[in-house]
Amino acid sequence: MQPVPYNDVQQALHAASHRVLAVVVLYNTPFASVPCAQRLIQWLALPDPTSSRLHLAHYLVYDNSPMQQPVDGLSKDDRLHVFHDAGNGGTRAAYLHALKVAQAQDCPWILFLDHDTDLPENFLDDACDALNAVSPAAGVGAVVPQVFDGRIQISPSRITSYGRVRLPGEKSGADEGPGALTAIASASLVSTESLAAVLPIPVEFSLDYLDHWLFRELQRRGMSVAVSAARVRHSLSVQSMKSMGVQRYRAILAAELAFLRGEPDYSRPKHLLWHAGRTLKLALSTRRLALVRACSRGALNIVRAP
User: Fold this and answer.
1) CATH, domain range 6-237
2) How do the domains of the chain map onto residue ranges?
3) CA distance 40 to 117
4) pLDDT in tens, 103-133
5) Which residue blocks in 20-82 are alpha helix, DSSP H?
6) Residues 6 or more apart from 127 whose CB is under 8 A from it?
């Protein structure tokens, strides 16, 4: 047997370090209806590169629907993994399962995707350029794109210690400080090793505020978050307050409080003041009494929190 040339070995090892597992989290949506479904299928069909470019090596469909959703259009392939979680363990369960798959399949990067996120053709190239622009010593834990809901850029953003999320370009108040960098997890590339380092994920973040918690924990451990030039389309459900269910809103408020209480400079008075303004704005903009009552009760939870 002829020995494999050293350069070929080095190229293969370098390419392996850029293998990506994509995890698509479904809820009552067939995989074929996911905006980025065809893009993922196309990427998986490409030959593995021998360069340092990020490339899709496996993908996982994690179905949180009560009834398993069809995965029509997918050929049988050992690089495709489908998992049905009828108990709806939420995004937290999906990420933990994706971590196991990524580790088993030797994928150093995990691409998180919701069922309402679309990806541009150059997404992986832009992410790779962002990685290459950062010093290896910086310890990149994640690469995030620029995410838009319609014409509004919603990620990455900054979050204050009392809960206000400042969108890109929005000026901060004199007493707010810069705020911690955060992002929407969908369309984010997270290092498999970095995700494992922040475990365990608290049960309070089964769905809401999981992304804020994740990026905060990465940065607390000294890892940086790189921002790529990719522009991603995403439908943000919490933008539609006129149609949001009351139970979902209560869950969001509970997760927000759990997250903020983990901030070292959390200010209960500031949080209460900001929450009062939010309640008034909600009353004027939606006129949904049930939602306003839920927001008002949220103030009591802030006061009663230990």
Assistant:
1) 3.90.550.10
2) 6-237, 246-304
3) 12
4) 999 999 999 999 889 999 999 999 999 998 9
5) 37-45
6) 54, 143, 145, 189, 228, 230
